[in-house]
Task: inverse folding
């Protein structure tokens, strides 16, 4: 699988590092915003030798057409900002290159455009693209269906300076049709990130808990999303859509 | 729903207490092993007034035919021992009374007989009949399918004097095709019971955790099992079979 | 050690059960508010045989002088309400009987009276009398002294219907000179009670966590308090005062 | 406080980063084993501007006498290996420069030499130099003294590939006079490091838990150790010795 990556900020760098180390993936290039950067490839930047060094480009050097022509990929992974898809979207869709975007938010106008692109190629958009958090959300919805009478609490822990409620916690609340205001927010020291969904029953509790160790978790999630999306038909998908088929566990020992 | 309960040990009493308090359930009778008991009904024993007092019987007072004739029920819930089903099984199946058994273990001979009964009525057998633990097992299997490369650890905590590895932890291990020997066993003080399935990813962890508060959790699970089983066709079911349909989460926002 | 217990509500009964089972303690009597009670002793009520049955009295049957004269004790343990000490205080102090009170709150007027009693006997008053919570508070104060720059969060979990912030969490906050408003409150299902004090450092976290399994924990705490207080001189003590000496850990391997 | 650092491996680099960012500390130099290194200072290596750049030296460039003469420091912090103290020990002790060593293990012969050095200067040696873990050990010992009858379990979690039982867990076990074999070892994914000491009481549990976020935690611990040791007289200290005075919490509201 050949990958082109948009975005080389803190998350983008972590994702690039995972992609470069993945055996069945070829990180062809990374597209940065600004031009000046002392390293020419991801492998040089990370100090890791690799057959596919992951060339580092900047937007001013390329047109989208030129980029995809000279450096063809199967999937674009986007960890940049809402604007980038304007640069590469049409050209990617036209060549049936799949798109995996982890951009936090798109204005309605751009979102419409993405829906249009999704008729020509496969597009997956998920603001939190880790496997863990998205699995948690689906599992929590299952348990809510089983036991709608149980009490649910969402607790999130992050580093002291993180402002407001975590976006991921808000998404979990929306997904479980809960009030955002009920989220319990813990802020202390350098906690990377922890989300817990607690189900309280009269005589037992179930806790579904996700702990982030580092940003590289986004890399594994993006890789999983990219591989999965290449197997489905055109359309707009969320991370949940991709995980959903795994919830069809085979029947275990039912008899008839 | 009219219920008859076999078994009035520590678990049986807790289950009876939940059944008596449930509004849409009628606890008709409880069958004890021995004859001498100073209380005549569950409501008297618990000091709770109730329209359906839950009469307390002993096996020596009844034949199965007489019991089901004079005190008809829709479901038998069995928290006694492996022998009881020999007493009530045929008679219950013949009248199409559903059977929910939480007996820990059945010898192969009796198990065969149960399979035969399951052609005439609905039978659910689950040694740990809590909603929480069985949900955990299914959710864990889903995550294993999504991420077969992740490391899984099973950790169980119980009171100091509990001998050996917990039966529930063993069942989880079997269900996840893991080696029983890898279960980590914590024994301290009066911990009622805690099971954690930990998934370790390179850059994140997911923890699925169940904590028991008291034995009454079995009552809620048995009630859930009894209600669910009345809606399915004849056959032998596990608790997982009953929870499985809830894992078919509706598609979220997939477009085509 | 001969003990008399005031209060036979839910906490009082649990405490009585622990006292009755303790080998080196003699539960002489329990004083209830109201007269009518079908059981004459704690051992009969609990269905446990014991050399010292723990007679059950009601206040209307006795004067304090008569009570201590005919049924002398070394310690009074008080799990009743603020008024009881008016009944037994003077008489107990006059006979140098120690007093251990777990009453939630005393009005200032009664508190003054208690301070006066404390010049004649040993009095310990602690609204949450478990060993665990009081140890936690002291340990947390130690860590705050070591690392005043760390971020502290107090998180408490209780059953759904518990109103307001837990009194114990408020006490922890006061003890650590933190704002009560910063306590995070989780309410779900039947959680008995859990208090966590989280210390966030830039690159590590420390969590001090107390989980209640049942009310009997008060019994062990009261027993510990009663035994400890018999060894100190007259005065008014808190549970912390009694635990404090244990924080003087011997020097380990310092050389000079 | 002027600091010289021995060791520039993974832990050493993390420590250097903390020292460079500390306001009241001056990282004068770092001593590496090998000569070839493309960066001349820690600030250049980390890409952080600083008044005190933290020069990077190698042992072959210096004698100990020359080093301390031309680049005087108040404290040596040692995150290298057992041999280094042979290079700098005598010279440091002769100039009354304090020594803080986080070397994992010293052979008996070198340990004897360290004890001799400790008669001429202050030496602190602690294989795990975080504040959190050492606080945990002392707090656990306090609780063991309060409740010797409680059940204690040590649980440690680390990344999949960590071989054997964690050294820190072993130290905790030794410190609490427990059998090393009873430590529960969890290995999964990329968990940085977690140590829990669980106290089980009949009706409550207390959990003391330390989670590492990153190696920089050693930096804060070393800084704390260095500052503390400058205030004490000559001798050999452990991290516990330095934390011990903080366990003398003032009496709270005891009256007489």
Result:
């Amino acid at each position: 699988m050949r990958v082109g990556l948009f975005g080389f900020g803190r998350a983008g760098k972590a994702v690039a590092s995972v992609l470069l180390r993945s055996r069945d993936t070829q990180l062809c290039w990374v597209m940065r915003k600004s031009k000046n950067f002392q390293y020419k490839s991801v492998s040089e930047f990370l100090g890791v030798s690799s057959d596919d060094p992951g060339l580092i480009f900047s937007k001013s050097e390329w047109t989208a057409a030129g980029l995809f022509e000279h450096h063809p990929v199967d999937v674009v992974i986007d960890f940049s900002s809402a604007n980038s898809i304007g640069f590469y979207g049409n050209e990617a869709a036209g060549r049936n290159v799949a798109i995996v975007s982890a951009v936090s938010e798109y204005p309605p106008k751009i979102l419409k455009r993405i829906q249009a692109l999704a008729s020509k190629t496969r597009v997956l958009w998920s603001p939190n693209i880790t496997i863990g958090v998205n699995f948690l959300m689906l599992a929590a919805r299952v348990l809510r269906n089983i036991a709608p009478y149980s009490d649910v609490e969402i607790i999130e822990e992050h580093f002291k300076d993180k402002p407001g409620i975590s976006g991921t916690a808000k998404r979990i609340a929306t997904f479980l049709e809960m009030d955002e205001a009920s989220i319990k927010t813990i802020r202390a020291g350098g906690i990377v990130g922890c989300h817990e969904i607690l189900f309280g029953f009269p005589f037992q509790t179930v806790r579904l808990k996700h702990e982030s160790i580092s940003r590289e978790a986004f890399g594994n999630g993006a890789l999983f999303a990219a591989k999965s999306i290449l197997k489905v038909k055109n359309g707009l998908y969320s991370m949940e859509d991709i995980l959903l088929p795994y919830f069809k566990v085979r029947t275990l020992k039912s008899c008839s």
